[in-house]
Here is the input.
Amino acid sequence: MKIPVAAWSLIGVVLGFSLGEGARWLRNRLRLRRLKVAIRSELRAALAQIEDKEDILRKAIKALQEKRVLPMVAVRSMTHGYSSYIHDLYDYYSNIERYCLHVIYERLRVADMSMETFHEDFQQAIKDKIVNDPWEYYVGYLEDIIKSYDLLRGLIGSFLAGEPEGVFHVEIRRAANEAIQPTS
Here is the structure.
């Protein structure tokens, strides 16, 4: 059976369209994979930094207990990949993955900010007499940052293992709400 010339034109259009869309789809998948790898690399770097930051915090706590102040200078956590790529990856992560990433990066941001402003905040607390015993208060404050890093270690580990923690406990709340709602 001979294929008419007009059919060859249609076959060429369909084949060209399919190849173009297939190549576009493949490029997009590879790009998304690269972006996810960048975020995972960033999380591994943050995980490696936690020990150093905790060491700085412990030294600052020891100094406060000796009634001295140690300004904390530390390299900020890398967040460029997350802040640049989360918009592109938003639809490709599950709710649990997005929530976990959000909590990880917000905790990193808050810890960095707290460490950076510690010296100035402490001096202001002494000057303005904001708290009764700023030495004791700020020991507790820095210990809270260490606890946050302990939590971060677990969250980052769970995300990298492919089993992100349900940080907002959405599934538990949904199940509880479904259990208490009357059936029709």
Summary: The chain has a mean pLDDT of 90.
